[in-house]
Design goal:
6-stranded antiparallel β-sheet, globular, 129 residues
Length: 129
């Protein structure tokens, strides 16, 4: 018997939190994506914060965690200088909410998925409309 309390529904972090990572994109495009997310969701990156590229030969990865359980505003179209690849990891419903929100701002294509028992990882390609 498992002594861990059962967590289900909106009380489980996987149903409300999505970890979003961006890499190999311009810092202005990373800011645009993070701003679209921060407009609607509680995020650990404040609106208008410009991500800083790391120095050295390794690729820079920008990461934020958003709480998609209480959207504050619908997305409005946003411009990117080039397509951006987004990795989103969280519960199935949470990732779907995130993808739907991003589709209000960008043209979104699903380019890869990895499914788990309770969580999934989705690779999205964002482009300006």
């Amino acid at each position: 018997m498992n002594s861990t309390p059962e967590q289900s529904g909106e009380d489980h972090p996987a149903d409300r939190e999505v970890v979003v990572s961006l890499s190999r994109c311009d810092s202005r495009d990373a800011r645009t994506v993070f701003d679209v997310l921060a407009t609607a969701f509680a995020s650990d990156h404040p609106m208008g914060e410009t991500p800083v590229r790391a120095s050295g030969p390794r690729p820079t990865v920008w990461v934020t965690t958003v709480d998609v359980s209480q959207p504050r505003a619908p997305a409005t179209p946003a411009r990117l200088t080039e397509p951006v690849t987004v990795e989103a990891q969280g519960g199935y419903r949470a990732v779907d909410r995130l993808r739907t929100h991003l589709a209000g701002a960008f043209a979104v294509s699903v380019v890869g998925t990895a499914a788990g028992d309770q969580e999934q990882e989705v690779r999205l390609r964002l482009e300006s409309r």
